[in-house]
Amino acid sequence: MNLVYKHEKPLFRISATISILFWLGLIVGTMGVALLFILLGYLFFLFAQSAFISYLKGTGVKISEEQFPDLHNRLVSCCEKVGVEEIPEAYILRTDFFNALATRFLGRHFVVLFSDVIDALEDQPGAINFYLGHELGHIHRKHLLWGPVLMPASVLPVIGTALRRAEEYTCDRYGVACCQNESDIKSALAAIAAGDTKWKTINSEAYIGQVAYTTGFWMSFNELISDYPWLTKRMSTCLALARGEEISHPRRNLFAWFLSLFIPRFGAGGVASLMVAVAMIAILAAISIPAYQAYVQKAQIAIAFSTARGVQEQVTEYVIEKQEWPATLKDLGYESEVLSGNAGKFEIALYGNGIVAAKIGESDSGEEQYVVLEPSIEEGELNWSCYGQNLPQQQLPHECR
Fold this sequence. Notes:
The protein has 401 residues and is an alpha+beta fold. 29% of the residues are buried. The chain is elongated. The chain has helices at residues 8-29, 33-59, 69-82, 115-120, 128-140, 143-146, 151-154, 159-178, 182-194, 204-209, 217-224, 231-243, 254-260, 270-322; strands at 61-62, 89-93, 100-105, 108-114, 338-341, 346-350, 356-362, 368-378, 381-389.
């Protein structure tokens, strides 16, 4: 039996290529400075991981020849079946989770069986082999070792989650290889699905029949953005593998594939990824929309100022020629007393003593906003000053600040 799921290797190659190019680009682009941050990140991870390993060793029960020899024998047997040469340290840990895990710390591998799993499968101890085999799969396939390297590609839509699901399918195959019979496989997966007591009465074939529900849009979409295949598919796949049958699942919805292209991977579950993606969109919107609005207003003010400068030049010529201030824009040759521009988004008019003012709009408090060009005569010379009225300084042209 081929222990590696058919999609894992091609997805791994794609992810490895993308990630290695990213890391090389980052290191070269930062002239090696990124290496320092990578080192700091590793140290942070090391200390965080040490907390769990310390808790595991100080609280969990180590499985050995003296402590739970039956489980130790199962672990050794599974290692032999799947080709894991160095037997990892294994512990039983009391938690509120029904699962098992594999982890790595300073080159050593650890397998953790949560006590609820052991208790639930007391009447079907062979099913524990599935959990042991599954976690040994992560170790044997070096998923834990490659995880940090593949981090850049792991957040990509579709690819990141697809590789994780492929790894889970691979590890399920390791679990199947460790089990002695089909009943153990059913019991192991039924316990995850129905709980520590109801799994005993679950109708496995009826449960597998629920695979037919996974072809719809919502089921397809939420699986595509998740790290784990639907458990119904996992049981169906494992049993087909044990029976030597062809594995076939319904096709996923095409629109779900398309939509999943826009959802990056940010965690263990699809809901988490979706929530993070929505949060990121909301944050970007909160930042970009006001920034865009400010940019639009600044551009509008710049256009109004440029037009007002044209009026200012005409006022200067009028005063030099007539030796008096023009009363309205009509005195300068305009058809009306108000000059509208940019599709009516600003209005320019003349006020007393030759003041040219461009009305831009209103502030949030309802005050009218202006860019004002005000003339003054000093020692026979006509000078102009520019300022804003009820406008933020940063939105004014440089000449008006």
